[in-house]
Amino acid sequence: MKRGLFVYRLLMLLAATVGSTSCARFARLNQLNDGYYRVLTASNDTLLQQLRAPHRRYYVQQHGDTLAFTPPATSAAIPPTTLYELLPRESVTLLHRSFDLDIFSIPFKALPPRGGLPVQLNTNFNVALYVGRRLDFYRFSNRRLSPFQPRPFIRSNGFGYGLFGGLGSSVITADLTQQRAVTDYEGFTLHGGAAIIYDARLLNLGLAVGVDHLLGPDGRYWVYQNHPWVGVLFGLDLN
């Protein structure tokens, strides 16, 4: 549980950094989707101690300002459900894990200095298929959003990590191929690597580290062949 809480706080710091630079905002929800969640934090110590053991995941349902926690069934008997009515100034943080499949564009790549050349910025066409794990954090609280009564308030943040692979292009010149290329042209490249993703709800964005492999006879002479680069991802959630 401590490890999950550490990851949550680390990703909150990353989200704050991304949000300050991209003007992205945390999504606000009115209703939590039914599903399996882990309880990371809770203002109510009794609830936190009760849900920490012996189960790691609970099937959570929201009924207004009340959360129902049901452990996975281990026998034919129906497992007991814990009901928790959220009081003002109390909160519960839940974690939902899922599989993630996205298609990303890579608007630019930063290629490190090589062969006497300075840092290069590749803004050519690049697309990638991303497969990874998704972490969705939900902070459920009760706020007085009206002068009449408190209402449930849910703040949601999504993060992901995984691998990607795809197709792109790069400008090829004689200087980039040890004077082997007879003319300047755009060559097709295969690329792959790892990425971390932040879900800004309107779009997904992330940071990637990958390598390019130039197709064709000039690939063996290309100074960036199979060498790492750093780039930015933008894409849509397919699932």
Tell me what the structure shows.
The chain is mainly beta and 239 residues long. It folds into 2 domains: 2-97, no CATH class; 99-132 and 160-237. It is built from 2 helices and 12 strands, in the order H-E-E-H-E-E-E-E-E-E-E-E-E-E. Strands 6-8-9-10-11-12 form a 6-stranded antiparallel beta barrel. The longest helix is centred in the N-terminal third of the chain and has 21 residues, at 2-22. It is elongated. The two termini are 28 Å apart. It comes from Hymenobacter mucosus. Keywords: Signal. This is Outer membrane protein beta-barrel domain-containing protein.
Q: Number of helical segments? A: 2
Number of domains: 2
Order of strands side by side in the largest beta sheet?
Answer: 6-8-9-10-11-12
> Which structural category fits the helices and strands?
mainly beta
Strand content: over 45%
Mean pLDDT: 83
Radius of gyration computed on alpha carbons:
24 Å
The gross shape turns out to be elongated
Protein name: Outer membrane protein beta-barrel domain-containing protein
Keywords: Signal
Organism: Hymenobacter mucosus
Signal peptide: 1-27
